[in-house]
Design brief:
The complex is a heterodimer. Chain A contains 5 helices and 12 strands. By secondary structure, chain A is of the alpha+beta class. In chain A, the strands form 2 sheets. In chain A, strands 1-2-5-4-3-12 form a 6-stranded antiparallel beta barrel. In chain A, strands 8-7-6-9-10-11 form a 6-stranded antiparallel beta sheet, with no helix packed on it. Chain B is 75% helix and 0% strand. Classes of the chains: A alpha+beta, B mainly alpha. Chains A and B meet through helix 1, helix 2, strand 1 and strand 2 of A and helix 2, helix 4, helix 5, helix 6 and helix 7 of B.
């Protein structure tokens, strides 16, 4: 009898103990989540490294999983092309004619440019080195606009480098792992890109706002911009080379200027990472003393080509 | 002897299936699909996994696992660590407490339960993300994402149901 009582009381205790243990586990994890969030907010290096290591370790999985999507994208593009081949041919003929005319004027301009540069002792810009990488994950969501690409520090990708596509600016490299990197898109709320309004030359900042349409900010109030104006990178800040298309102004209201980005992120499958770092803006060493020696008096610096 | 070994390996494999599907849903939710604006309104696939497994096999979906997968998603999407983990943890606790109203009921009740969980989780994520990013983030895409999440749920639930019947087994010892 006594034995039965004892076993009953143990059984009776086990229930509440288990409930308390479970509650404690829940509270502990709850507190841990909050602590981690606050630590992440403080941007500690350790957590950032942990993130990079985790992303890097699953990059091959993402790479593999993105292959079928890539194949599907190619198949749908092929099918579309097949049905549009006649219209596309007509369009390309017209474009070819137009481009041939452009090529003529471009050749003339190139000759003229070379002559003028020779007269000015112009130090040529070094073309930025570029790495092309595949997009392996769209980690955008509605809160954090970023992409993961399958190139990292082993491909000489560095934090802060510009990421572009054929159409224009995509964003910049925010985190770099060994074989993967995170690209902060120009639409993210943390993205700021110094830009120029092509028609007026006004300097502005393209500010992401977590919608697909960034805002154009810091524009002089008397500036005559209107929808349809093109924005290009100004090259200030040293991240983006000057002259890359960012987008066109789609709407101008009293309170806000809206930009339609040139790049359609969903259609991209690859992106180019430009190394426009310190090496990109330093002139070749042998040119510098010659220019210094022959220069009689300080003359105004030639503007870099846009 | 060897039969016991094979049996236990199969058993272990069976027990890790729910966690595996949850991780797979995290990956699938972040594929780069060629659909304009899809990334903004992508359905919260992992949340469906948490809901499904906590209702049907809570023994194989412990809160520590849910928490860890949440941390993994945070790492992947570039969110502050703990954001998704917290949302998953709260979803786990809520669904576990309400599971007796959902088990053995018609599918539409199971779906209706998710139609309550998804908006609450989505709104909470939006509020936390806004607080952590120091700005009120656009809410229209969040709303669209929640609606899409609720409507895509039957497809994912069906896939998980097939997986469960095929690999895991019906009822857990809870």
């Amino acid at each position: 009898m006594a034995k039965r009582n004892a076993s009953m009381s143990v059984a009776g205790l086990a229930g509440p103990v288990r409930v308390w243990a479970q509650r404690f586990a829940f509270l502990a994890l709850f507190a841990l989540a909050f602590a981690l969030m606050l630590l992440s907010k403080a941007e500690t290096g350790a957590l950032e490294r942990a993130r990079v290591v985790i992303v890097d370790s699953v990059a091959p999985v993402l790479n593999t999983l993105s292959r079928p999507v890539e194949a599907g994208r190619e198949v749908s593009a092929t099918v579309r092309k097949f049905f549009l081949v006649h219209a596309e041919n007509e369009r390309l003929r017209a474009e070819n004619e137009r481009l041939l005319r452009w090529m003529q004027s471009a050749r003339q301009l190139a000759v003229e440019n070379a002559t003028l540069r020779a007269q000015l002792e112009y130090v040529p810009e070094v073309a930025p080195r570029a790495v092309t990488a595949r997009i392996i994950a769209d980690t955008g969501g509605s809160f954090f606009h970023s992409l993961l690409i399958n190139a990292g520090s082993r491909h000489l990708v560095q934090r802060g480098q510009a990421v572009v596509s054929q159409a224009g600016v995509v964003g910049r490299v925010a985190e770099v792992g060994d074989r993967s990197a995170r690209v902060l898109l120009l639409t993210d709320i943390n993205s700021r890109i110094p830009a120029l309004v092509e028609s007026t030359g006004d300097r502005v900042i393209v500010t992401g706002n977590n919608t697909p349409w960034p805002s154009v900010t810091y524009l002089a109030s008397n500036s005559p911009v209107s929808s349809g104006d093109r924005l290009v990178t100004s090259g200030h800040g040293g991240v983006f080379p000057p002259g890359l298309p960012i987008g066109t102004i789609s709407e101008v209201t009293e309170t806000r200027i809206v930009l339609q980005p040139a790049v359609e992120i969903a259609r991209l499958s690859e992106a180019r990472i430009l190394d426009y770092g310190v090496e990109g803006i330093l002139p070749p060493p042998e040119k510098v003393p010659a220019v210094e020696a022959r220069k009689p008096a300080p003359s105004p610096e030639p503007e870099p080509t846009q | 002897m060897s039969e016991g070994g094979v049996g236990s390996i199969a058993d272990v494999a069976r027990r890790i299936v729910p966690g595996f599907t949850l991780v797979l849903l995290v990956f699938l939710a972040h594929l780069h699909l060629p659909i304009p604006f899809y990334a903004e309104i992508a359905p919260a696939l992992p949340l469906m996994g948490v809901y499904y497994w906590v209702v049907f096999r809570p023994d194989l979906m412990p809160r520590v696992l849910v928490f860890m997968v949440g941390l993994f998603q945070d790492a992947l999407i570039g969110a502050p660590f703990g954001l998704t983990a917290l949302i998953f943890l709260l979803t786990h606790a809520f669904v576990l407490s309400q599971r007796r109203f959902l088990v053995g009921k018609p599918f539409w009740i199971f779906w209706a339960g998710f139609a309550i969980v998804a908006p609450v989780a989505g709104t909470l994520t939006w509020m936390l993300a806004s607080a952590l990013r120091g700005a009120i983030l656009p809410s229209d895409v969040v709303l669209a994402s929640i609606v899409l999440t609720v409507f895509v749920f039957p497809i994912v639930a069906w896939c998980l149901l097939r997986t469960q019947r095929w690999l895991v087994g019906a009822a857990g010892p809870v």
